[in-house]
Amino acid sequence: xxxxxxxxxxxxxxxxxxxxxxxxxxxxxxxxxxxxxxxxxxxxxxxxxxxxxxxxxxxxxxxxxxxxxxxxxxxxxxxxxxxxxxxxxxxxxxxxxxxxxxxxxxxxxxxxxxxxxxxxxx
Length: 122
Fold this sequence. Notes:
Blueprint (H helix, E strand, L loop, with lengths): L1 E12 L3 E16 L22 E17 L4 E17 L10 E2 L4 E12 L2
């Protein structure tokens, strides 16, 4: 689940095509897959307990987007977009027993996403 606020500028704003550049902020909440194995790599002070379930990651992000979108007809839009996403997660790990759950704040995930954009207008 992602909530995103974008501020942007149309570099080209034609009747059917738009070339845009956006800068935005986002709040992301997602479940990562559960892992099995020794989890002691996170800190030497922690006992080597195992992951017990899915990990929920809630984080804020900064997004830069560049793309072009074209109106196919009056209700369908299609385009391409390149996006740079920097996530600042606060990751909660689930261990056995529960008192060994930890939170880390210091990591940043950087992603470059290239994809197809489509939308419907009503």
